[in-house]
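Objective 1b: paired records.
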Amino acid sequence: MTRHGSPSSVTVLGECVADTFAGPGRSGLGELALRALPGGGPANTAVALARLGTPTRFFGRFSNDVFGTLFRDRLSASGVDLTGSVSAPEPSTLAVADLDETGQATYTFYADSAADWQWTADELAATQQDDAVCLHTGSLALVRQPGAGHIEDHLASAREHVTVSVDPNVRPLLVPPSAYQERLPRWCAPADILRLSEDDRALLLPGAGLEEACDTWHSAGARLVVITLGGRGALASLDGHRVTVPTPAIDIVGAADAFTAGLLHRLAALGHLGGRLDRLSLEEVADACSFATHVAAMTCSVPGANPPRAEHLATPFLSGERRFTKAASTPTLVTQPSPNRAHARAVP
């Protein structure tokens, strides 16, 4: 049951990544100057949540190297609480981008034995006193060993007290899609919210349509499935009831973390985090997704992963058409799921 009256704080658990780029005009013969920007999907989500005004705590393993300091500074400057995070002797995770003449990037990752994947059961147990209404996690920290298994166990324990949100954020250059496919049912079991992209869906369930994918993940346990569709907005499925929410006049590819933050922020504001989403309606799902696409669009309107602050949000974000569907050809609000879409949670 949702905990009304409790602080609507969200905890994010996951990695930080230093996104590095060659600095044009600063490199010379025999040397290469790199510009490093703090990133990582979970860290970006935490920053966006805090900037929107949601009290946010980030649980991460910060290396004692120079990049660890960069990560801490960015999160703290955005208002994220780092209490409970771990100072780690292992190195930070690096992603080095090689830009071609068109500006397209090819990445090389330096992630083996990095601090982000070394979570222990004792470290995670120390975070259980957190009073948040939601725990969000995903991305590489949930799939890279040795820490991934401990995080899975932590989710199963945490869902007794909080809403659980998962974003697989598939990274095929680092982890083969088959590893995600194998583990995803274990993530859906404790998850109340599963947020992923259309590209993720194609890698996780090749050949499956969007609605078939939603039903598969409902059956595995996720009650609310939200698939972002780039410039086409987002499809949300609540126990098999669908809503398609268009995006503002901008492609939101590249702003998935900001979308997730907007979604969780709005659900918290509506009072639906802290339990199993029992009172959540499809209209409120559409409301939350509309807000999320607005946040994502604003993030895409400026360079870098630089999400907006609450005071910069325009108010008419809920304008625009919404299409409520049970099937693509039936533009009506669904009040009951069909029998083959019955929701079955894998974890009681």
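Objective 1b, second protein:
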Amino acid sequence: MKGMTRRTPDLAAIAATVTVILWASAFIAIRSAGESFSPGALAFGRLATALVALVPIVVVMRRRNGLGRGLPPLPRGRGLVLVLVYGVAWFALYTVTLNWAEQHLDAGTAALLVNFAPILVAVFAGLFLGEGFSRRLLVGIGVAFAGVVLITAGGSGPHADWLGIALGVAAAVLYATGVLVQKVALSHIDALSATFWGVMAGVLATVPFAPAAAREVAAAPASDIAAMIFLGVGPTAIAFTTWAYALSRTSAGALAATSLVVPALVIVLSWLVLSEVPTPLRIVGGVLCLAGVAMTRGLIRLPRRRARASAVRVASGPVIQSRPVQSRPVESELEKCEVKP
């Protein structure tokens, strides 16, 4: 019809939506595949599959971005050390720990605990990178910590125990460590190369689990093998690519809220697919965790205190007013910190 304009699809929004769905489904796939695979074997199978799937993605993206043909060159010096450290901490240790946690936790509780990682990033950055703590960060950290206490106080149940809670918190610590090391590494290497070589480091670190993976694949049903392959192709290779695409075309602040949708989506999927739901107390704790993360990212604004104009009069001299404190760099970095299963 005349006068009607065809709307072009928002590809960035589509990419972000695909990413969130894949990340949420990863918690379900890990829980399901854990019936047949040990934590280390599942991690090796996932990362090996992801590495194979990443090869054509990386080659195409490097060519499209004018970065050359073939695979990215291996970083050298400090860049190589940082990539190896974050690859082992994030892709290897975090993946094994999360797999282990989900053998003792329902998928929803695991997702709620892992989403505590941005708070840990803020704490680590404030303590070790000298970036300090603003009022917004302190309030957000306090609210999120209260949420973790409630999740822990949820007690044992048919789908959760104390070992699972401890492993979930450990997974969040490993994730936060990987994020901070990656941020330093990105000053020496581009994001695409860091992802590829980070996954490579994760594969090499989990090679000792390869024999167990071979044995367990031979005995596993086709559905659990498909879940392992899906974890490597979907939430790892594809999701990292679609998120990078969305982030390159949308501000980090606008995308920050999307990761907060993941735990809620995981709980719904876990209920529908696995018939597992966290206890009400853990859900309340998870809401507090997400609210605290949202506060640190500026998605929930704290009420402003009345500015007190501090004035100093010397005889009949002019009034000197205090300047507003500038926001800390860690707050802008938190807007870029997304939790990926």
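Residues 307-328 have pLDDT under 50 and may be disordered. The two ends are 46 Å apart (CA to CA).
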